[in-house]
Amino acid sequence: MKVSRASRLKYFGLILKGGKVSIEIQTVLRPSIPRPITLGARLSVLEEIYLFREATAVRRFLQTHTRLIDVLLEAQPHLAKHFGPATQVALEVVSDPEANGAKQLFAYIRTTLPVEAALAQLDLLDEEWFLDQLDRVNGLFNFNLESV
């Protein structure tokens, strides 16, 4: 267990040994209680990982649908596995004209892979991870490919 300096307590005690009084200093460790990470801090982390297109709209959407933040944070290693660690992913809020303008967040995976290879990797991402997240995203988020 990793314990910060702030989590160490010192106890001072008097001990009687052979008629002499000595002072014992004992360090006792207590586990740190994790502090909740603020919404602003979580959004800042996302902004370091993803490119926000129309950043105000993306932030507003994520502030309204906070459960997507965890999905996006968890997606990063899966994206790196399938598309490479240096692959940029752009987040954009898109209105669906077929659903009366309902908004959805898209993560556009910017890739130089040939189309067939990129589609194959996207299918693997879906099968290995994203399909298990569909209940969490509730139709509010999806991935798409963008050739660069």
Keywords:
148 residues, alpha/beta, GMP Synthetase, Chain A, domain 3, 4-stranded mixed beta sheet, 5 helices
Structural summary, described in words:
The protein is of the alpha/beta class and 148 residues long. The protein has a single domain, classed as GMP Synthetase, Chain A, domain 3 (2-Layer Sandwich). Helices cover 38% and strands 32% of the residues. The strands form two sheets. The protein has a four-stranded mixed beta sheet with strand order 3-4-5-6. α1 runs parallel beside α3 and α3 packs across α4.
Q: What is the CATH C level class, in words?
A: Alpha Beta
The second-level CATH architecture is 2-Layer Sandwich
How do the strands line up in the largest sheet? Answer: 3-4-5-6
Largest sheet: 4 strands, mixed
Terminal CA distance: 45 Å
The total strand number stands at 6
List the helices and strands and how they pair.
Layout: E1 8-17, E2 20-29, H1 39-49, E3 51-52, H2 55-64, H3 67-83, E4 88-96, E5 102-111, H4 115-128, H5 134-137, E6 141-147
Parallel strand pairs: 3-4, 5-6
Antiparallel strand pairs: 1-2, 4-5
Helix pairs in contact: 1-3, 3-4
Can I get a quick summary?
By secondary structure, the chain is α/β, with parallel strands linked by helices. The chain contains 5 helices and 6 strands; from the N terminus they run ββαβααββααβ. The chain has helices at residues 39-49, 55-64, 67-83, 115-128, 134-137, and strands spanning 8-17, 20-29, 51-52, 88-96, 102-111, 141-147.
